[in-house]
Known about the structure:
The complex is a heterodimer of chains A (232) and B (328).
Chain A: E1 8-12, E2 18-22, H1 26-47, H2 54-80, H3 84-88, E3 91-95, H4 103-111, H5 113-117, H6 123-131, H7 138-143, E4 145-149, H8 173-185, H9 191-201, H10 209-225
Antiparallel strand pairs in A: 1-2, 3-4
Chain B: H1 3-25, H2 27-31, H3 40-56, H4 61-79, H5 85-103, H6 105-128, H7 139-148, H8 166-187, H9 194-216, H10 220-228, H11 231-253, H12 260-293, H13 299-319
Amino acid sequence: MPTPIDTVRLYETPEGVDLALRVAGPAPRAIAYLLDILIRFALLLLVLPLAAFSGLGTGLILLAVFGLEWLYPVVFEVRRGATPGKRLMGLMVVHDDGTPVRLPASLIRNLLRVVDFLPVFYGVGLVSMLVDQDFRRLGDLAAGTLVVYADTPPPKPTLPRVAPQPPPAGLPVEAQQAILAFAERGQTVSEARRIELAEILADGVGRQGEGAVAQVNAWAAWLARGVPDGRG
Amino acid sequence: MKQDAFESAASPIWTEYRVMLDALENPRRRRAHIPDLASFPQLHRRLCSDYALARSRRYSPGLIADLEVLVRRGHRQLYRRGSAPLRATLDFMARQFPRTLRRHSAVFWIAAALFFLPMIGMGVAVHQDTDLVYSLLDAEQVADLESLYDPTRHAPGRGSERLADTDVAMFGFYVMNNVGIGFRTFAGGLVLGLGSLVILLVNGLSIGAVAGHLTRLDYGTTFWPFVSGHGPFELTAIAICGAAGLLLGQALLAPGQRTRLAALRANARDAVILVGGAALMLVSAAVIEAFWSAGPAPSGLKYGVGVLGWVLVAVYLALAGRAGDDAH
């Protein structure tokens, strides 16, 4: 089967299974970055009243400016897996083996941000992300990190409980998967669309309308559960 | 085996695994004792095998996706790289940082030469030539500098208008400014080492020019005692940041047997250790600069502290954690 054009990167774990890492492109990352700027600005506004304490206050504000400029992304990435802006966009930073990012890699990618920012507003970083197939900016390349979509646990789909019927013999595995996927997710699309999809899947037996939907669901039940007497 | 039978046979194990994952992912409960943690790797392998089976038997995509999320969460917990912040920091400063620096001593000496030689050369030249200072600094900057270190204002770095309270403000400023320069010196190395090179040269030349100019004006009696305390830590740390940047540049220009990307990653891992250590040195330098250098201690004592500082830095970087040097 040809490799599909997708943003999924497979990482093979020591246990021998493939984990899918869905890398995030420039657009969601730019939005996350802008959100982070707003959050940093808000945090800075919070400490500004310290200026009332003259010298001491000024010192603390300057330390806060330093912290927000350099350490904000590092602290959040190491402790929570992503900055607040990235969390809002559903992103997280991981090592290229899928494990959570730790201090050294996070420091490398965030200190080298200065270079990605060149010449104006992430010019270098954007070019690097567009050239690299994993959307890595230079800091990510040096640190060996990826920005990926965090896994929101999908709602557990359930197959409709209908009387199973054996599907036509010699059904290719892709078709079997399509039938199972239809049975799991068919309820989430509109009725007309559901019928349209079912008619494609049930094309060989010539069922139409709701009949086709019932037919496909029955096949799916057979594929998943077998026949009631346990023959399957 | 049909999917339904498979699911109902394995689901107690999946539930147990899920509960353990929820506990592990919660930072507060992570510190607390989680019962049966020893069985986690075994459970994880079981889940991996179930996931692989589900895929190879072409079970429904929903089930496969569900198992994949579980395996991925478990993978993160099982293979996460450990960290024990405080002990790790102490160990880092006591051993790892000086050791890494010694491993890259050639690069460090190059960076130090790029920083200190122009500094000394410029200092001597400005001391000899009245107008040379204006080639680097404009007239306004020179005038500011002169008023700052004018011996007729008694406390250098802390003028008559400056109160002890502003020490904290200056500390904040020194941290922001100096550590920021250190970080930029490192990051500049990614531009084939050129960024680090330029920052080292420019800073070396400017510091030299300032020192030479003030000494020529006989303002040295206020300038030198002020800088002697924090100088050893600050200047060495900037040179170390430069070395870290040059390591990045070296990986790109002369990767050796590795690909450029592999060389960059390997060198970045060492370079970030150097930057971390240098940043902590710069913070200590900021403490000294804000609370000691501007203080009222007599010049003799300040020179003494300065000499002690150089000895300390040299001994620390040359000897700390030396017992384990062969380990690398």
